[in-house]
Amino acid sequence: MQDVDGPRTSPVQRAWLIDEVVRNILAHVPPVGSSKTLANCARVSTALSEPALDMLWSRMTGLSPLCQLLDASSVDEHTSHLSPTVPHNAIDDAGWSRFTHYARRVRKLHYHCREGPSERLSQRTFAALVRRASRAGSPLLPRLEELSWLHCARDITPYLHFLSPSLRRVTVYVQVGGSDPAPGPSPPDAQQQQNTGSGFLNLLDAQSPQVEELSLEGIALPASLEPLLAFRRLRSLRLGTVACPVAVVVSYCGAMPTLASLSVDLTCSPAASASASVSPAHDHLGADVDTDAPVLRALEDLRVAGAPSLIEELLRSVHPETLRSASLSIVVSEHDQDGGTRCVGVLSTRFATSLQTVRVHYKRAAGRLPHTARPFAHYVQPLLPLGGLRECTIAVEDPALVVMTDADVREMAEAWPALSSLEVALCPNPYTVGATAAVPCVASLAAFAHRCPALTTLRIPVGHSISGLDERAHLEHDGCASVGHGLRGLWLSGVWFSEEESRRVVPFLKRTFPRADLSPMVGADSHGGLCENEREQQPWIRSFATPPTVLDTFMKTPAAPTEAPLHDIVARKPAHATSLTQLPESPQYIDGRRPKTVIEFGKALRYLPLVRSVAFTGAGMGIPWKALETCLSFPQVKAIEFTDSATFTLVSPFPTDAISACSGLEELSYPTPLTPRLHYLLERQTTLREVCALERACLSPLVLGMNSAARSLVLPMKTAPLSDMAKINWPALQSLTLGGSFRTDADLWNTECLPSLFRHTPNLRRLNITAGLPYPTSIRCSVLGCNAPPAVGLEGLRSLTIAYPDPNDAVYSTPFSGLVSLSLRDWPRHYDVVSHAYYRDFWRSPILSATEALSILRRLQAPGLASLELVYSADGADDDLLTFITRAFPKLRHLELHRYRQSSDETVDYQRIARTVAEISTLVTLRLNLDFQDDPGEANDTDVDFRVLTQWRSQLSTIGWAVVEMLSERCPLLEGVALLYRGQPPAMWIWCLRSRQATRCCAYDRSPENIDTFAPPWPCGRVQKWIMRGH
Question: What is the DSSP string of 817-864?
């Protein structure tokens, strides 16, 4: 490209001088590889430099790239995540000029990390930046427009330094620990949170008066604040879960003159006072009632969850002429059975002329099983007066059966003539087995074609009845259909039609709604779908498949148009379908995004006959049953794997008939981290208890259905259906892994569960139980218990891995004639728990003592053991333990020792350990973590100078080569010795290989399969307490 600074003789060259043109061109740079492309553009010409740099630096996830401009020589070339440091003196003018030259280009800062910038960059670096910015009289990022901050600590001051007058959008999540606040007097912690919230809101209002969108979670609203915050330009406010009274929320929001959107969760708020109640008669008087009370006069969109009385109090504070959209998640208690309808009645009486969109989710308490069904009219009648309604969603979770009739359909169609979207979800009754509620017939849908000409999306449950589908019975509607009704998105949930029934249903639907896209309801055959010519040869396919997923009730997506019309679509009922397909349980909260499933998902497997394993990854909203069912319909698929980025977080519970679909599956891998991903919980505003319940509901049919063919299972200890697994046979199971963490009530865990399971696994060869122990527990991991007989089906084990083993466990008395690998370890790693407070505050680490480890190994009957990993704390039996290992296992080839000092002032004699281990003549590899006294550790929650880390790494290398020399003479098969280095996360092994002994050149092993630390390397710390409460 010719430099545009040269002679310009053409209009094309002169166009490069127009800044708007250049920025429009750069805006089309593909996202993949955009950083490199923009950097190249910035270097190629001065005309491109400024716009390209603006786009390159517009979005940041931390300050490290900017701080590298201060002192680039201090950045570790091997660990890019380590932030540089600056000298003790203040930042000089040249360094500050480089910093501000790029900092002024940052428009978005998304900082989601457990540590604040002071810990991430070191206290000295961040303090120097703040001092220099204060002296200059400007924020750190002076042109910042969007700030998204997740910081799990009590100190909220770090993000205050990023407040600037240019801010438009702010999202702040602060987790300060503790449980949900209870109503009543504020405890000291709650009072401190209120003071913190008061200070933050005052500063935000003063320093960023142009904020238009504000999302807060963990910021407690104080009971009173004078003067009230104005936020003159704020249009959208999301408060998350609040514990203050509704009156406090209204007082704050009422002072914001432009507030148009409010989202708040009142489930933790105290009950409304009697004085706050307003007579329903006042609703007709509009805004003139009680003019002194705060009123949300500009509010157009309201999303609220909580008890009926609280929602009702908030609704009465909204101006009746402005509200356009309302989303209510109503938790109806047993003592207030009519609270839901009374609450929704406020919408009809107060906002009858203004409301256009209503989404209501009723969730009734399930304390008692009702004896009679409840009519759907009980829920829909309060909404019928809203004649101008355009979008409506009604979801009902009721322990009683909900009866929906054809009359309900006609009433909705007649009451809402301007309706464009209607979604109705009747959640299944989890208590009444075999009972089905009445639902309208397909013919009743003709009422929408006649009464609602603007309807474009319809999702509604229907029944098997096909009466009234005769064409002559609907001549009055054919006139409407002849001109073409505009309905495109149609979903009939909860029904399977036979081949004969489908021959009548499909023509009726095509005649009534000629533009409707029926393809989402058309299921696939065992080969993943039929093409057009196949349909002609075999004119029946499975139809009306799985109903909408969990969040369909509230978040809809328009149906994709079909490329070609579907002709003569008929269906048959599959042999295993004996009842209605039930709509899965709806969520308690409204906010969120609906998980989507591609209609043609899995079709490519038709052309890949040798594919045996399918792995799911990068599906943050979860893997629904429909996707799994499609994969399992191909007989060649024998293995399913889920990564930690593809779980069951936001999907529907799997149906019970999923058991039959999994009968041919041989391998299932569903590993979970110690705690679920934080943003999943924040996005759904749910608790870990609900996440585990959903995970257990999805795993149970999947695991139990594969018992006859299963060969390998990787499951979470917390949610694996172990009790049910112990009741059936597993004739082919060879490998079982239980990970994640124990429940907090693990002390009450039935220890008979695992022994019963092992009696049904005659071919088990590999057992791995690596689960963390949260603080409420006091046990260690016991496989068989202390009094169980040793012979329970484990004699054939070849590999055994136990985290935090119980030395009294009877499993170590089992005669393992074929055992070749034994690991008595820890999880999370003991050095992580000891070094970092954010592990230590939640996870226990009851590792073995040398005496306990020796007692286990003395009972162990494994003459063929070739690999041993041992984690223990040194005591008086330290020498005896090492000596016993060298003599008891003559075939030992791989040894890994994690030895922790008995006291902090102990000096580790690594030479004595090496001389003892040298007695193992068959040794091939040796890994050592000896907890040296001088080890700076993995930062140890303090600021460790990089030079100290470099010096320690060099010292470890020297020790490693010394051990290699001591072992070389007596261990002819030795390949190398590794020492654990924890200077920078994640930990890595420094290998001193015998083949490199002449050059003394170490190898650094940080490969994913060998990273010897808890993942992720920078977890969310104390937020674990929040997401683990209740379990």
Answer: TT--EEEEE-SS-HHHHHH-HHHHTTEE--PEEHHHHHHHHHH-B-TT
